[in-house]
Amino acid sequence: MKARHITPELAKSRLVAPEDMVSCNLAFIDCKLPGSHLKQNYSFVGPGVTQSSAQVVNIPEPHGFNIGAAAMPKGVTNNLHLHFTAEVFLIHEGTWRFRWGANGENEAELSAPAILSIPTWIFRGFTNVSQEETCGMVYTVLGGNHTGGIIWHPSILNAASEYGLYLSKENMLIDVNAGDTLPEPAGLLTPLPPEEIAALRHYSVEEMRQRAVTGEDRRWSAAGLLDSVLPGHGGEIAPVIGFGISQDKHAAPAIVNPHGFSVEWMRLADEHVVGRHLCPDVQVIMVFKGTLEVTWNLEGEEVSIVAPERSVISVPANSWRRYRALEGDMECILTTEGDQRKRVYWDETILKQARAANRCLDPDGYVTAVDLLPETAKRAGLRLEALPSAF
Hints:
Elements: H1 8-13, E1 15-16, E2 40-45, E3 57-59, E4 65-72, E5 77-83, E6 87-93, E7 95-100, E8 106-111, E9 114-118, E10 124-128, E11 136-143, E12 150-152, H2 154-161, E13 165-167, E14 173-175, H3 194-198, H4 205-209, E15 212-214, E16 236-241, E17 261-268, E18 273-279, E19 283-296, E20 303-307, E21 312-315, E22 319-337, E23 345-346, H5 348-356, E24 359-361, E25 367-369, H6 375-385
Parallel strand pairs: 2-3
Antiparallel strand pairs: 1-21, 2-4, 4-11, 5-10, 5-12, 6-9, 6-11, 7-8, 7-10, 9-15, 13-14, 16-17, 17-22, 18-22, 18-23, 19-20, 19-21, 19-22, 24-25
C-alpha cells in the first residue's frame, strides 16, 4: 500500500474541533431519569453505543475503535450498564466517582488527568463529583467497530419505563411519550436475569486501581521517539494501555490485557516538534492541554490543521505526519488500532540527523546509541528503519 496523500479537504474532515462537537441528550434510556437528564453525549469517531438515531457522528469511518465523550454537570450520573468490548475513560475535566459491581457496590474517585479501563461484562456507572459547578468532560474509547451496544441494569430499565422509555430487541430507544409505538413484549429487550448478574466477575477496589493511571502515575520517557534527541524536537511518551508507538526499550504500559487498541500520552514543549513519520495503523489524537498543529505529506503540498484543547484528530493509516506544539506546552492522548506493538517509520532526513546525533534503532526496534552496536546489529537496525518498498 502506498503512503496516503492528505488533501486539504480530507485534513479538515479529520479534525473535530470543540465547535464541531454536537451533543445528544436523548442517547440512552436513562436520559429522563432525575439526576441523569442533564447528560450530553458525543460520538466523535464511530457511533459507539448510542441508542438514538439522532446522535451525530462526526467521523463515521471505521477505525477499529470508537471515540466519544460525556459532558455532565456536577452531581449528574450515568447509570449502571455493562459493555461487551473494552471501555476506557479519559478524564479531561473534573473529579468522577466510578461505581461497579452487581449493584454498583464498589467505587473509586479519579480526577483529571486520569485514564481508567473498566473490564467487559461488569456493570459500571459514574457521577461528576467535582468541587466546581462547571460541566465536567470525560472521553471514552470503545473497542471494535461494532460494540454490540450495552446492557442496562434491570433497575434502570424499570425506572425508565415510568417515563415511557423502553429498548427494542435491536437495543434502540423507544420513547412512547414522543409518539413511538410500544411493541409487544417479545419485541422488547429482555433484562439480564438475577442469576446471570450474580455470576458476573467481581473486581475489588484494589484490582480496579491497577487498571487506572492518574496524572501522577504517568512515566514519561524522553527516549520514546527516535527524533527526541534532535534540537527543537523532544517529544515524550507515557504508555498506558498496550504497546503503542514508544521506541523506549524500558517502556512498560500499566495495562496490557487486549483492548483492540493502545493508549499513550504524548507531550511536547512549546514550539517543539515530533518529526515527520508514518504509522501503518490508524490513530486518533485527543488534545488535553495546549494546541497541536498536525502537518501531513512527505511529497507535494504540505497540509496543516490546528487543533485547540479538547479537539479530536483522526490520523489516517499510512500517512506522513509531523506534530508541533503551538502557543505553549501541549499534552495529548494517542490511541492506535491493534494490540500489537506499533511500527513507526521516520523520514530519511530524521534518520540521518539521528545517526549524526549517535541515535538509531537496535535490531528489536528500540532507540539506542549507534556506537554501542556491532556492525551486524547496525545492519539489522537499518532494515527496521527502512520503509517497505510498497510505500
